[in-house]
Request: fold
Amino acid sequence: MRAFTYERATSPAQAAAAVTQQPGAKFLAGGTNLLDLMKLEIETPRHLVDVQDLKLDTIAATEDGGLRIGALVTNTTLAADARVRRDYGVLTRAIVAGASGQLRNKATTAGNLLQRTRCPYFYDTNQPCNKRKPGSGCAALGGYSRQLAVIGTSEQCIATYPGDMAIALRVLDATVETVAADGRTRRIAIADFHRLPGDTPQRDTALEPGELITAVTLPKPLGGRHVYRKVRDRASYAFALVSVAAVIQRDGTGRVAFGGVAPKPWRVEAAEATLPEGARGVSARVFADARPTEDNRFKIPLAERTLAAVIAQAKA
Amino acid sequence: MKFDTPAGTNPIDRLQVVGQPTDRIDGPLKTTGTAPYAYERHDVAPNQAYGYIVSAGIAKGRISSMDTREAERAPGVLAIVTTLEHAKPLPLGKMNVAHLFGGAEVAHYHQAIALVVAETFEQARAAAALIRTTYARSDGRFDLAKAALSAGYEPIDDEAPNPQDVERVGDFAAAFAKAPVTVDQTYTTPGESHAMMEPFATIAAWEGEKLTVWTSNQMIAWSKASLAKILSIKPENLRIDSPFIGGGFGGKLFVRADAVLAALGAKKAGRAVKVAMQRPLMMNNSTHRPATIQHVRLGATRDGRLTAIHHSSTSSNLPGGGPEVAVQQTKLIYAAPNREYWLKLAVTDLPEGNAMRAPGEAPGLMVLEMAMDELAEKLAMDPVELRIVNDTLVDPAKPERRFSQRHLVECLRTGADRFGWSHRQAKPAQVRDGPWLVGMGMAVGFRNNLLQKSAARIKLGGDGKLTVETDMTDIGTGTYTILAQTAAEMLGVPIGDVMVKLGDSDFPASAGSGGQWGANNSTAGLYAACVKLREAVAQKLGFNASDATFAGGQVKAGNRSLPLVQAGPLTAEDGIEYGTLDKQYQQSTFAGHFVEVGVDAYTGETRIRRMLAVCDAGRIINPKSARSQVIGAMTMGAGAALMEELAVDKRFGFFVNHDLASYEVPVHADIPHQEVIFLDYPDDKSSPMKAKGVGELGICGVGAAIANAVYNATGVRVRDYPITLDKHLEKLPAIA
Reply:
């Protein structure tokens, strides 16, 4: 871990200004991912701006019947919220499928969105990794890639977005609210929030330097059956090989997003039209452009079969 | 005490304390977080500084340069020890294959190349990142399958008739060709990591020429000799202390880099230094269970009698390393008139392969017992009956040599009955429970009972309390408790009156913890010391030792009775040494493993539903801690069957998943109801305790029982462990 300076921000705009002004500064919220990465010198911020005092820790109803979730609401609080459990069950189920009780107590909504890939080559600083060290190459290509992405990848990076919560947010069409150093706010659709690697895999999200997430909003409830199915080698405390978040209506129509398969939550709205006919058509369309490795080719049939399980569960 | 004839009746047979389910006497320390593990021993030496290990970033080659100038200037840095300070590697310790430190050559990934010592851990870590190392990489051999093509034969055991070649009995080829029913398959098992909770950790302090290391190690006497050799110091100037160990599984049988670096760092810094190996280094810096490619060919008559057995295994290691002896148990489990066994060893430049819980048997039985399941299916025979038909009560290689005890058939029959085996559908993929495909599987467990000399000291205090001292270790197994039980039984006092002190090289040398030999041998060694103490007590109190009984804190003979406390203080020391009973008799332990699994029909995920092990392992000294050992080993076997695999990067030559997030071991949610039944037949050939090893039996065979259950559930046979969903997904029954 490199030496760093530390301050506690007093307002969102002040936090954003602090990070913008100081080269190499980062926000610190729950720290469940950032501190681990700092210990391994994968992240080497020179200054941390702690946002824990910003009072962004409430969940409130919005005027259009949705919910506004403060950036600092913990995963535990969010998953347990009665409104979330009642109206956005897919979100609760996704959150509790991830990490452990202790981590969820500490991890925040915004921080969870920003967690970085678990690609083993990203974690091993002896190895080339374009995401960790731009231009150094990608050791995962041609290496051990069983956990890695099958779609949305580039020649520079095949890392997977590892989270669960964001897959549910994607299927719910959530919006990420931010504030910049000059106080300007903006709303980013969750679909546009995470980036594909292209030639700049070091940039995971659409956030500008210093831009601070203040909240995540959910539109009004969709009704239907909410399912989150996470497939993994062991029964708990493992990242998804494949996960499926779905909201399925009584008539079989609905929405579906996939985790564990791409550098971002993977949803192809156009493919959802055929959901009432079953998993095969949806999956074929969603993964039409997949470029798997030998190690992770199985994720494509696995995604289809997992979707079939989700549809069956929604019908039951 | 020499143990060279079968044990007669002795005070242990009273079973007032021994044989009773007994809570761990060290339990309160463990559950309150006050058991002093190596890294936490803040009180043993003043002014402890922190060491941080720097490791090689390549798998094979040479260090061209190391620039430590920036690191030396970093805040808090006290000393930096680099591998280049030594012209060549430090001497090898006992049973180490890869050297632990010294010289410019890099023999494997994450080999230790420097230690940074600083005032705080954070300062040491920060400075370590400032060392600039350049390498000249060389090509390495990292692919077992490729290296296997040029592998050479290795001896299977010391008694192999022709150690450099194939072991043959009868005419395997002819018998196999003639057999009406055969199995002929190749199987693979991956490299596995010990992945124990407590990493390698040591505090080292010098006083002049004398070095003390407080460490975490299974084998104190071996390690004392090894560390003295590595550091080129006299053994009498070295003390090792390891009273609590947070898991070892064979990874801590030998001295590791933490101890060497702590000693070198302490010398250079002139301070006590503590070093814990960083978790991401644990998999590549140290040892692992080697991957194997195994071939089994079985020939049988139509009524299931084996006529031909071939088992061979190829594994790899660094130059000078040994093979994984995966075929050894096959020589002893089943009799067939025609047999053929061989081992081959290939050279690779991956990290060192070495012992991990039940080396040989664990991967060997995963394969043999899957092949037996395949044979049972071809015979249309119940898998339990197939094992029973082929049971043997003698060593097949030396029919005059009987097993000291062998109740394998009873293990299997009891297990089948208790598990409800009769409900198993012989035809696979027949049972559904909602989305789950449900199957049952079984396998034989087998592991030898090894006799090793072991010594102990016992003191009777003036207060009537007993203190046991031996360099034996408790690696989480319950050793403290069974030694206290033994002393309490022998001297007739409550277990609360016995204090046990372990793991100090100044104490009498014990068998140590490994190869499931710890319990029987260390208690037998203490038994010998207790016999001596009883003699001394009797003499002091004026009894004839052979007439005296020790019970309820009293020593009695005839109508005379005196309190034991009157004899104190007294000290006695002795050990157990063995004659040839293990040559005259084959001494082994046996199990029947039964498992039920569910396989998700959609996703192919396997989840275990029930597990049962019926164990025949001599007298069970403490049924409670023995059960813990067996269920822990069953859990480890579940990991081996379903998830554990050191993933090799064959280009860069290292295990990629080198932390506990990416090397998955079972979590609580993976392990359902586990049941263990002990048959509890005392074995008078094993020791005066009549006990045998049990700590490894639970992992032996259980992986195959799981694999066979998966097959019974799905009808898809996966012969490459671990059985992850990707290996059978697309062959599963079609989904609706």
Observations:
- The two ends of chain B are 70 Å apart (CA to CA).
- The longest helix of chain B spans residues 518-541.
- The interface with chain A takes residues 57-58, 75, 122, 125-126, 129, 280, 435, 600, 602-605, 607, 642-643, 647-649, 651-652, 656-659, 661-662, 664-670, 722, 724-726, 729-730, 735-736 of chain B (CB under 8 Å).
- Chain B has a mean pLDDT of 97.
